[in-house]
Amino acid sequence: MGGKNESSSATLELFLKIGLDERTAKNTVANNKVTTNLTAVIHEAGVIEGCNRTVGNLLYSVATKYPANALAHRPVLLEYIVSSKIKTPAQLEAAFSFLSNTASESLHVKEFEEACGVGIEVSVEDIEKTVSEIFELNKESILAMRYRTNVGDIFANIRKRLPWADPKIVKQLVDAKLYELLGERTAADNEKPTKQKKEKPAKVEEKKVAVETTVQPSEEELNPFLNFPDPKENFKVHTEIFFSDRPVLRCCNSKEMLDKHLMVTGGKVYSRFPPEPNGYLHIGHAKAMFVSFGLARERDGCCYLRFDDTNPEAEKKEYIDHIQEIVSWLGWKPFKQITYTSDYFQELYELAVELIRRGHAYVDHQTAEEIKEYREKKMNSPWRDRPISESLRLFDEMKRGMIEEGKATLRMKQDMQSDNFNMYDLIAYRIKFTPHPHAGDKWCIYPSYDYAHCIVDSLENITHSLCTLEFETRRASYYWLLHSLDLYQPYVWEYSRLNVTNTVMSKRKLNFLVTNKHVDGWDDPRLMTLAGLRRRGVTSSAINTFVRGIGITRRSVI
Asked: Which of 42, 56, 152, 463 is the most exposed place for a label (fewest CB within 10 A)?
């Protein structure tokens, strides 16, 4: 027992040496996972004798937030931090983003430094000038609101113009500018604004107005699912959709293919709710559930709860259990209880082999940087036209673990001259020597979202593949792949996301708040997670009523 206490004391002393405040250091010692990570980072950075607080806080962020798929590059990042080449949270966030996208590739130093603003010094004069300009643009509203002005918006505008500016200097100058413009705080500045009661009109006139303005709800308000066609109409899935300035033609189901599909489904609606198990669900997911589960319920159909688990490094059982619980709490009952994309890994692999045999896929050896460069120039990969037999052999070697991570990918042979960047030979398979939480260690190659999701939709006989508008440009690839493999094509339709102003809706940012203990877990009532709303006392029926009232349209909803 004494040994454990001595170890904890030594660890606490180590954390205090790097400038963590006592409360943060003690909380960290109580968390075994973060303690292990931070201790490793401190030793890796070579600062066991201590460092200044700025460096220490950045090291703490590395320990709690560094992308797990890019550990090979962590020592390089730590050198940049210790040498103060990376010295602000904004630079560190940019580094995380860059490294997570080049996890299995060699690090291109010049691109890395450009992405992180290394060597860019923002002078106090530049910050002063920017602060003055933003205050001048917003002077009227600041004078009206005084110290009730949303300073966060001012900081956001400054960050947009000067992303690498020192946040401490920015805060000092903003505070000084507010004081210069407004003077000392008054008692009125500290008072909460009172809500003025609206005067009620006379009772007689109120009745008159009510009669005159009564409007019957539209059919779409009464039934928001009228947008979607009957499954029997899927012989003609979208034949065109407009991207920028021209229509992109689409394929459609043959009569024979549609008849075969209808024999399985009995003409019922089959939809799916496909979350990635990498975090807790938020209010936006409530709308996604309402759309997919709600359509199935409205048409007496079926909706799968399918976990999109193609990235073994991101998933946790905690998230899977939470998602199942929340789906049930909101009153939705999945068809066949639960499915996983990993349930179809064998079928997906066999279809990838078939895609190669048909001349629609090839094994590529370009690095991430080279793929990016070639896509920007609309150039074909040097390996695009390699013999089919060679790609089949190499893909088999990928599957058997004979090729290193990052040394080969399977890419779809699409259209490098298209106006749609989602047709630039997307990656279908990557090598990852990581055991899968659901499939175990059987696989060392994993399919990409762009390859897997449309095929699994088809294999599960989904009639309506519903998703948010950011996936609109991927519809071309979705139908291209199903057409290339002669598979049934679901009806794809995108709707607007549910956004709530002045709240955090990003899973990545929510994860940051939870991991760094800025909030009391995923169910903190200040968050717009569904667990947080439930803890706040919001009922499931209230949430469903709210999202139903918003409707299902392609217009932006805030």
From this structure: 152
